[in-house]
Design goal:
Chain A is mainly β. In chain A, about 0% of the residues lie in helices and about 55% in strands. Chain A contains no helices and twelve strands. Chain A is globular. Chain B has one domain: Jelly Rolls. Classes of the chains: A mainly beta (about 170), B mainly beta (about 170).
């Protein structure tokens, strides 16, 4: 029996980059799964990370987030939003060297003519007093098949950051 | 060489249906993953689906949930329930929107331990939505051979359910 999961594309940064893009995603799978290991290069503040689809930036997204920072747990939501946030504080140069954030993003039925749901698990442990774990439900109010995914950030991602895009088929 | 991640069965509903059952699940895998892109015909608030295994509708299930639908996250648990809840899924307010549901069943075929699942459900809507993670346990040592996924009300047409098997490396 054929495997149901196939690596579509992978990126391992050999130099700092402001974003990671998966383009020309084939429509031959049922679901998409993305695994990320990311660290930012900035030396100050928190580094945000977000995802947008098919090049669409505008008001097509909504999200409900549940996250903890090591001391408290918070919930919020955004509507008519330009993207889906993944985490507001990935490890960067301010924090312990060699610490990377981990994430899994699941996009079921990505070729459907219905709107697209995203589930995002994102953790940014950085060996510091404050670190974050996020569980996010995202919505892309667009009926087109997803052909492009951009993982973007407020700062550059460092060398050795990785991103893997898998296709999962129920055929 | 056997594939590590295989589809066992899949169903896409052509009409509203009360439940979907995966039966005759082989014991040849290590873990199972249930993936659904699904919504039901109920109202949106506190809208839940559920799972039962091996046709057991007795009060042999419990779960612990952390979830949010507003500014204040909430956690609660159920004990001695007749099913594991799938909290909170998309209802009927928007025909374009479906929840993302991923359930992991680790070590589902052993005959010595109770069976635990990790359940993650995401439902973002134009007004916010819900995100939930829960752990469920079935107090039974039998291998899981069937999974019923109930919609609470009916599952909406277009909902898709797929069961995958994961095989550990030889």
């Amino acid at each position: 029996m054929a495997t149901a999961i196939t690596l579509i594309s992978s990126v391992s940064l050999s130099s700092a980059a402001s974003s990671i893009t998966f383009s020309s995603i084939p429509a031959t799978y049922t679901d998409l799964k993305i695994l990320l290991s990311l660290r930012a290069s900035t030396t100050s503040g928190n580094s945000n990370c977000f995802i947008y689809l098919n090049g669409v930036l505008g008001t097509s997204y909504a999200q409900r987030r549940l996250f903890g920072d090591g001391a408290s747990v918070v919930s919020d939501s955004q509507t008519s939003y330009p993207w889906v946030d993944m985490i507001n504080a990935i490890p960067n140069a301010t924090y312990t060297a060699n610490t990377f954030a981990n994430a899994e993003i699941y996009i079921p039925n990505y070729t459907s003519s219905n709107y697209k749901s995203l589930s995002v698990d994102f953790v940014g442990e950085r060996n510091n007093t404050t670190a974050y774990a996020y569980l996010t439900a995202g919505l892309f109010s667009n009926s087109s098949a997803i052909t492009t995914i951009v993982i973007d950030g407020s700062d550059n991602f460092v060398t050795n950051s990785t991103a893997y895009l898998y296709g999962i088929s129920n055929a | 060489m056997p594939a590590t991640y295989e589809k066992i069965a899949t169903t896409t509903l052509g009409s509203a249906t009360a439940s979907v059952t995966f039966s005759s699940i082989p014991s040849t895998y290590t873990d199972l993953v249930l993936v659904a892109y699904a919504a039901n015909t109920g109202s949106d608030a506190a809208n839940t689906g559920y799972m039962q295994y091996n046709s057991d509708s007795g009060n042999n299930y419990s779960d612990t949930i952390v979830y949010t639908e507003g500014a204040t996250p909430t956690s609660f648990r159920t004990t001695n329930s007749n099913a594991i809840g799938l909290w909170t899924i998309m209802g009927s307010t928007d025909s374009n929107r479906y929840s993302s549901i991923v359930v992991n069943f680790q070590n589902y075929s052993n005959s010595t331990t109770y069976k635990t699942t990790l359940n993650r459900i995401g439902t973002a809507t134009a007004s916010g939505g819900w995100t939930n993670m829960s752990a469920g346990v079935w107090r039974n040592t039998n291998a899981i051979t069937s999974i019923l996924v109930g919609g609470g009300t009916n599952w909406r047409s277009g909902s898709t359910f797929t069961l995958y098997g994961i095989l550990k490396a030889a």
